């Protein structure tokens, strides 16, 4: 779980970093990554993105508020010092006690390191005392810099720049017995404000980082909590699709996802039950279908006592070849049925031709050749039997192109038809005919070997010859697929 959370956090941070990069390419890359990512990652990413964006905006607002607060506090302290000096300087100005005024300015300056200077001027802006320079009697410029604010009590704050940096200059009027005696000017260094702002900014950044880390961790936990039942459902759907589900899904909660999981368990149980019934019906239907095919094949063979069981034997030899060359079980089943259907067209062949004791003349032979076309026509009436048409139509094609009905050659001949050609020819040679006796097994195999590459496909003929020389036909069941099933 921890590893999964770490992976989600890493992906979320990487995607977030790409998303925050400038440029459309980075945005498209981030969006593409998010679309292809897992659901857990998407949840974690969007929660982190929302949390980070919200925290960032709140941090900016907090910094701005704190900056204004710190500035106001510093200026209030400066105003407080200036007003304190002004309150005490009225009597000293009236009595012309310069030593008292100088001591008052000195004490205020020495107790406030962030004040670069303090001085007192009269109503004509001539300096009376100054904390830094012996400039008594000199005129000081009035209203320097930008006016920052002005109070109802006459206190003014100006922002001005000099060689040492930005200074806030606070001017407080000296009033004694309702008479304006002069002003106290206090300088406040802005560097103090910047330092305070920097400290606050660092603290806010630390808090922001902690919030983001905790948010990422919490979002990963949330994603894991939400993803568990969803992953369970996804796995259940996959098992249901492949029919491998055996046990009900685990229910993690009693919320909507839990209810959905319960409903899925009930649905999958019902589907499994119905699937079992359908499988049984399908097996019964398949058994009936194959039985009908065998009956049809037997009926065809029964028309000629000399070829009785021919289709079944062709199926046996063909399946030996099919299994040896690696055909799948379903392909073997189709090959077996194709063999049973390969002579179905002989139903339309007249008995005078089919049962003739002598060799056929040219007209009769041409009519006999048409049984492959008749068979294809019969099978075309049933769409489910259409896949057996190629093997029925072309099982008399020759590898060298001299067969019928279309003169196909080589790989143009369907595989099943090429296999049936060998099995059909071998069974025909080893069966008695009115006009000749059956060949011995060795003679029939020599004939197939002789016709390899001409009538028969060489690789299939070689496989059949090897199987027959090993005596594999003696142990093969009559219907290989049905016996295996």
Descriptive notes:
The protein is of the alpha+beta class and 485 residues long. The protein folds into 3 domains: 2-65 and 201-239, no CATH class; 86-197, Beta-Lactamase (2-Layer Sandwich); 303-484, Orthogonal Bundle (Hypothetical protein af1432). Helix content is 62%, strand content 9%. The chain has 16 helices and 6 strands. It has helices spanning 2-20, 24-36, 39-94, 98-110, 190-242, 256-302, 310-324, 329-341, 351-354, 362-369, 371-379, 389-394, 415-429, 441-451, 458-469, 480-484, and strands spanning 118-121, 127-130, 146-150, 156-162, 165-176, 179-189. The chain has a 6-stranded antiparallel β-sheet. A hairpin with a 5-residue loop joins strand 3 (146-150) and strand 4 (156-162). Helix 1 crosses helix 5, helix 3 (39-94) runs antiparallel to helix 5 (190-242) and helix 7 (310-324) runs antiparallel to helix 8. The longest helix has 56 residues, at 39-94. It is rod-shaped and about 160 Å long. It starts with a helix and ends with a helix. Mean pLDDT is 79; it is low at 1-24, 26-37 and 480-485.
